[in-house]
């Protein structure tokens, strides 16, 4: 059986999430995975098709644009001048949302500008009828050395096409307490996907953004635990941003892709579970 236990565990988690956030049609994607995983010895996947699909299982459901914030940053946080701050936000959406952190007194203007830019980009690229997939995105906002002027509201903004969700944190800076700023800072992964669903045959980008001083060393490991390199991975490219691009994704790409960062004696990693969706599963 091609589906390893760790992948099965991920699928079960996604099924539970699907029931809460999306309804039964995504659940069918994921429960179908165990059947698809029963491949014959030649490696040809056994693609199961349902004779009768429930009313909710419609292609139009996959065209519905939405995003939700799953994990909110704290409502407020008090910190000392010179300290280090991390604010965390997790979102989910269809298509995969972009996460932005807004500061200042005009968050509505900033969000409208980002929304307008997103719509212009979509218009320039043309209207696509292909499902773009969905994902859960984890984002962290970092201030390495807090200053008095950093006090104010910080907004986590999730943008999926024309749908926007925001969550605010009030950052309170205590100027009576002063911490010493460090010239060096530990590596922090600020953006990645916890999981990603995408159509087979398409190109997918798995983000991994990191900050730290000195600049951390970053590399990826594929779903079989091998380090991604141009010599051994023709379809995999680590982009200058740190993101992993996989072209023409296939069923055998299903599994955990791990981004690792190293700085001195410190090593951190995050994992993205990639699930390639059979194109027939999105048809009416």
Automatic annotation (TrEMBL):
<keyword id="KW-0732">Signal</keyword>
<dbReference type="InterPro" id="IPR003598">
    <property type="entry name" value="Ig_sub2"/>
</dbReference>
<feature type="domain" description="Ig-like">
    <location>
        <begin position="67"/>
        <end position="156"/>
    </location>
</feature>
<feature type="domain" description="Ig-like">
    <location>
        <begin position="187"/>
        <end position="271"/>
    </location>
</feature>
<dbReference type="InterPro" id="IPR003599">
    <property type="entry name" value="Ig_sub"/>
</dbReference>
<dbReference type="InterPro" id="IPR007110">
    <property type="entry name" value="Ig-like_dom"/>
</dbReference>
<dbReference type="GO" id="GO:0098632">
    <property type="term" value="F:cell-cell adhesion mediator activity"/>
</dbReference>
<dbReference type="GO" id="GO:0030424">
    <property type="term" value="C:axon"/>
</dbReference>
<dbReference type="GO" id="GO:0007156">
    <property type="term" value="P:homophilic cell adhesion via plasma membrane adhesion molecules"/>
</dbReference>
<protein>
    <submittedName>
        <fullName>Neural/ectodermal development factor IMP-L2</fullName>
    </submittedName>
</protein>
<dbReference type="Pfam" id="PF13927">
    <property type="entry name" value="Ig_3"/>
</dbReference>
<dbReference type="GO" id="GO:0005886">
    <property type="term" value="C:plasma membrane"/>
</dbReference>
<dbReference type="InterPro" id="IPR036179">
    <property type="entry name" value="Ig-like_dom_sf"/>
</dbReference>
<dbReference type="InterPro" id="IPR013783">
    <property type="entry name" value="Ig-like_fold"/>
</dbReference>
<dbReference type="GO" id="GO:0070593">
    <property type="term" value="P:dendrite self-avoidance"/>
</dbReference>
<keyword id="KW-0393">Immunoglobulin domain</keyword>
<feature type="signal peptide">
    <location>
        <begin position="1"/>
        <end position="23"/>
    </location>
</feature>
<dbReference type="GO" id="GO:0007411">
    <property type="term" value="P:axon guidance"/>
</dbReference>
